[in-house]
Amino acid sequence: MAKEDEDLIVEGRKIKFDNGYMSLTDIASLKGTPSPLIQDWLRLSATLAFVQEWEMATNPGFDVEQFAQIRAQTGAGSFRISANQLNQSGCIGIYSKRGRSGGTYAAVEWAIHFTNWLDPKFYLGTLRGYLKLLNSVHGKHMIEKRMTRELASETLRLPTGKALSSLPASADPLFERRFASIEADMINLAMWGMTAMTWRAKFPQKNARKNMRDFATKEELKAVTALQVISQEMQENGYSAEERLVRLTVKADEYIKLFCSTPEKEAVLELAQHKRGWGRFTF
């Protein structure tokens, strides 16, 4: 159970989160009956324009032409759109769930947009509450992830260093870099089923320095660290590249199950894979 100062509190009410997505149902209940309020907001032309911009910036698999068919219906008195219909059109910023903590959940930017439409007072309260939450909880999470990322970077030197030590002293630096990238890609293939070059071709980045590991979850980075240690040991024991890849792929599955040890962690990884558009792990 989260501590009181780790919850988002608006107008004295706690707003639920589900894997980083905020409950629109909880927010709407501050003003009235949630379902019609959310539907009224979703059917607005301004809302769908915002949705399109968010999905284009966030969702690599977003189909603008398909979404344009939905936007073309705005203005009609009978037009309605639900979270499930948006999901079917390829949107990932919103979803509905059933159960005790059920309701409509949306990405934080969507929730802030919703509160701005719903009520200026709620908008200000939600924005301030979320900023407080970032400082108290998510700041710590990002520190932990950064430390895990740095550890993965350090242990990458184990297999690549071992590989580079086998080259002659006269080897060209560019060749050395390429040789090291091959070793790194063995881990990438074991973890995510594609090389860095394939990833960049499928998911172009404005920042050329970004790589797959910058978008990995904390649990994935822990698995990467463990795989890099194993890769060095296999090199020392004379395994071929093909043998190492097969073994590392099997171990990647084992480590992900080990580190994603709770339903919450499993859900975080599945959501991360869905949002970024790549990943091969299922539970």
TrEMBL record:
Do you know which InterPro entries this protein is assigned to? KilA/APSES_HTH, KilA_N
Q: Where is the KilA-N domain?
A: 1-133
Question: What's a Pfam family this protein contains?
Answer: KilA-N
In which domain of life is the source organism classified? Bacteria
Q: Where are the transmembrane segments?
A: none
The name on file for this protein is KilA-N domain-containing protein
